[in-house]
Amino acid sequence: MKYQSITRGKSSKPVLSLLTLAIAGCIPVSAIADDQKPEVITVLGHADERDGQWYPGSHQHTNMADIERSLDTNLGQLLKSSFVSVSVNDVQNNPFQMDLQYRGFTLSPLLGLPQGMSVYVNGVRFNEPFGDTVNWDLIPLTALREVSLYSGSNPVFGQNTLGGALVLDVKDGFSFQDNVLDVRGGSHGMWQGTVESGGNSGELGYYAVVSRYEEDGWRDFSPTEVTQFLTNLTWKGDEGNRWDLLAAASRSDLIGNGAVPFDLMALEGRSAVYTHPDQTENDHWFASLAGDIQLASNLSLDLNLYYRDSETNTLNGDDSDFEECEVDGEETLCDEDDEPVEFVDRYGKELDVDLDEMGLEADDLDGLNNTSQTKQKSGGVSAQLVLDLERGSFPSQWVFGAGASWADIDFRSNTEFAELMNEEVGSPRSTSGVGLYDEDSIVRLDSNRTQYYGFIAGSLALRDNLQLTTAARYDFTNIEMIDLAPGEDGTTLDGDHDFNHLSPSVGLTWQFMEQTSLNASWAQSSRAPTPVELSCADPDAPCKLPNGFVSDPPLEQVVTDTWELGIDHQTGTLQAGLTLFYAMNRDDIIFQQAGGLPSEGYFDNVGDTLRQGVETYLSKQWQDWHLSVSYSYLDATFQSPYISFSPNNPLGGNRQVEKGDRIPGLPEHSAKASLEWYWEDLLLGTDLLYQSGQYYRGDEANENEQLDGFTLVDLRASYRINEWVAVYARVDNLFDTDYETFGAYGESDEVLEGVYPGFDDARFVGPGAPRTFAAGVKVSF
User: For the chain, what is the radius of gyration of the CA atoms?
Assistant: First the structure.
């Protein structure tokens, strides 16, 4: 079921989440009255099915069978279509680069967004240390045994758990015992081939998967290639002892050509791009060793050790802010402050440049190639003790944990002058570099991030039907930044920042009827500014993400308090629930637009922001039919007045934002429905998604029109021919609806004025994908 409580496979400890009993929320799994034994979730263990297990935090879950029935190709698509209160801003129009919002908090692979969720894979913190981003292309969707989404600012999930935590549990040789070949193809040159195998000898188990995905993309000049590999080796001993060795690697070449001026789509079609290329190449791998050790009948130890290594290279072809000028009688380029450019080569060596001798005209250098390389090496160790106390009138369970992590980040970027190929109507507006670079735009940043934490969490059964949960966590984070850029600006980014915070939580769950429970809770968590935010925080010197960082003023850490009140009802065929939530961010960090492109600006503390609302769901089974529906209302507003820079706002820059103005980019209403029909070996399903309008980024004062809402309908079908062979197909956006998931203001006239005279559309949008088809065959052998 798409909106259901956890069902567990029989393995060892509870799932990677550390004490969701300390979460604020509303979906318990079952009553505790059978044996009065409260149950805690640990961040280092694995799923377990135990009598009397329950969770007072709001929790959504999907398992292997649900994932297979969805026919989705990636994790982001699954979350978008199946989870309550999740919406999507598909800025890049690449299936592996979408940014998700959950209750108004963002989880994205793109720098420049205020990340507010934590991600774990088999106990390993999965957010990238440079910007707390997440790369959807590293873990194959096929490899996931369970996907769980926990709500609230639960401190035990660690820093940056402002809105929730996404927990991914990988298959092993005990949960998956088969050999499967899955091949699919579809619209826009898409094809995907996946081979997975798993099995066990009773004590030793293995699981391995290899996947390859390719597509031409429905936008112009937007091919994508992703290769993924994952293996999980498991040893299970007596009395619940277990060790897991997980390794994964991926290599991807992602083209996401970003937002496009709204009126340009009418002139060149919805597949048009503004400028290109916009390329991201990822090379990732990581390994983890997790152990569950039963020290006594009521005492267990969970251990986790991990190491990650990643390299990301980007190439962004953009418009140029440099203008033609004359210095000492020679034609050259000047920056926005009318200072002449110091030309260098890609390594920062100064060049004596005469544009005439090179056969170049300054006026023709109207484009830029912004390139970056980010190398991140990180690792960590965690340990926690789980103690069950069943004596006396109040059985309890306690978790004591501690951990440390480190990250070494090497970031470098260059800005190369280029010619923008936009002379003819319908031309691709690509950039062609000329081998000359801007000295002031060179960034060479070495950053080290170290974190230590400790926590205690407990669950106490006050009565047969009443449970108290509480937790407290202390975090200390140090971020050291060393500027290695050549020239006089080589110390601009230097900094040494310490952040620390003690975060508590408390919750009550009351099983006041046999199948109905009520719960209430409060939780707090914090987010330390990331190196990318600290490197781009000067309003007088905005940067171009993810390329140019320019100064290092201090930023305050964000602290979030979340209150939740929920009621949940469950029977054998019916599940329904209602949750009220209220999350207040203090010293919230946002990305202020400050240039001609939506990705140009700086990070800033803007005071308090509020995300409050209500969500409800219902899931019902009737013999061969299954229905799931959900609705969520989100009121996301600024709570502190401030001046929004907004240079491309149609009403002019420096707009006054007042308390109560809605946060752009977040829909107020969203609804989802799924209907499935089973007949012997045939499954037919349809999914409906509604998302209301949103304000454009750059309109924080809510003074202009909103982006329109939209409704989408998808179809899917699968048929098992025999024991070994199954076929399937799906259609997304059945009615070929034109819609946009994202909007921001930018400056387009300088690029397009020579092609479309008088063109001056400040609205940049992320167009949604048209109708697409996919079909495949799955063979077990």
Answer: 26
Q: How many residues in total does the chain contain? A: 781
CATH architecture of 20-320+366-429+440-780: Beta Barrel (2.40)
In the DSSP assignment, the letter for residue 77 is: H
What does the pLDDT look like over 215-232, one tens digit per residue? 999 999 999 999 999 999
| pTM, rounded to two decimals | 0.89
E strand segments, 550-608: 558-570, 574-586, 589-593, 600-605
Detail the DSSP E strand segments found in 297-329. Answer: 299-319, 323-327
Closest residue by Cα to residue 566 from 66, 5, 52, 43:
5
Maximal C-alpha separation, the chain: 92
On average, the pLDDT of the chain sits at: 86
CA-closest candidate to residue 507, choices 457, 548, 545:
457
> Is 483 within 8 Å of 493 (Cβ atoms)?
yes
Q: How confident is the model at residue 38 (pLDDT cuts 50, 70, 90)?
A: very low
Please state, in angstroms and as integers, the Cα–Cα distance from residue 687 to each residue in 99, 347, 406, 484, 671, following that order. 21, 52, 42, 52, 11
Cα–Cα distance between 3 and 576 in angstroms, integer?
9
Q: What are phi and psi of 65, to 5 degrees?
A: -65, -40
Where does 666-739 show beta strands of DSSP type E? 669-679, 682-691, 694-695, 706-707, 710-720, 725-732
| Helix, strand, coil percent content, the chain, rounded in steps of 5 | 5, 55, 40
Q: What angle do CA 709, 710, 712 make, to 5 degrees?
A: 160
Burial pattern 402-426, b for ≥16 Cβ within 10 A else e, equals ebebbbebbbbbbbbbbbbebeeee
Sheet of 144-151: strand order equals: 59-63, 144-151, 164-170, 117-121, 124-125
Residue 694 pLDDT more than 80? yes
Listed by start position, the domains of the chain span 20-320+366-429+440-780
CB 511 within 8 A of CB 32: yes
Alpha helices for 318-431 (secondary structure H): none
